[in-house]
Amino acid sequence: MSAKQHNETEQLAELQSGLALKPHEVPLNRIIPLLVPANFFASQQWPGPYTLLRSSGLAITWVVLMPKQTMLYVTHKMAEHWQGEKLDWKQKATENLARATGEQVATSQFAREDGQPYALVMMQEDGFGPSRLLLTDQLARRFPEGYRVAVPEMSVGLAFSARLSEVEQKKMENLVRNCFEKGTRPASPLIHESFMLVPA
């Protein structure tokens, strides 16, 4: 058995183990929000809670991070259990994401000649880069003049100043379009106002 096959076998075992968990056995400190395209939920067959956002085409659902780089989507039964326990599990999920992120909300940036960043790129190795766009307190500190966001690809989140030069604006538009058109998991070609990342 190759190393890749061994890893895939371990991941499958972890998924099967996770699916067998009872709601009260799910570790609350492993839940995080997941920013996804709204068309994920077009079939109405989604197994758990989700929230459509005011930003056209975007939504939030929640996952439980499991060992071996696997995850489970939060189910209705999990949510009902936590609500019965009077737990604000959605807030806890955001806190978990913030703790896992620390102060390094971005993996790279675009900066002006004076070194001042005008755009942040979120492509974390965990694959949840776009979810960092939900860490609004951190982003607001970096862009006190306001900012816009984009999720062109499932593993790419972008935040950039609301006050861009014409050249900077064109660069961001091209980046979003290229990521959407050439990405392996395209999400949305749109640029959104940050204040639209709230429930519809």
Layout of secondary structure:
Blueprint: H1 3-19, E1 31-37, E2 50-52, E3 58-66, E4 70-73, H2 76-84, H3 89-101, E5 108-111, E6 117-122, H4 136-142, E7 147-153, E8 156-161, H5 166-182, E9 191-193
Describe it for me?
A hairpin with a 5-residue loop joins strand 5 and strand 6. The protein is an alpha+beta fold and 200 residues long. The radius of gyration is 18 Å and the shape is globular. The longest helix has 17 residues. 32% of the residues lie in helices and 24% in strands. A five-stranded antiparallel β-sheet has the order 5-6-8-7-9, covered by helices on one side. Strands 1, 2, 3 and 4 form a four-stranded antiparallel β-sheet that branches. The chain has two domains: 99 residues, no CATH class; 89 residues, no CATH class.
What is the number of independent domains? 2
Order of helices and strands: HEEEEHHEEHEEHE
> How many helical stretches?
5
| Strands, total number | 9
Mean pLDDT: 88
Give unreliable regions as ranges. 1-18
Structural class of the secondary elements? Answer: alpha+beta
Shape by Cα distribution: globular
Portion in beta strands: 15-25%
The major pleated sheet works out as: 5 strands, antiparallel
Order of strands across the main sheet: 5-6-8-7-9
- In whole angstroms, the N-to-C terminal distance is 49 Å
Q: What fraction, in percent, of the residue positions are helical?
A: 25-40%
Give the C-alpha Rg.
18 Å
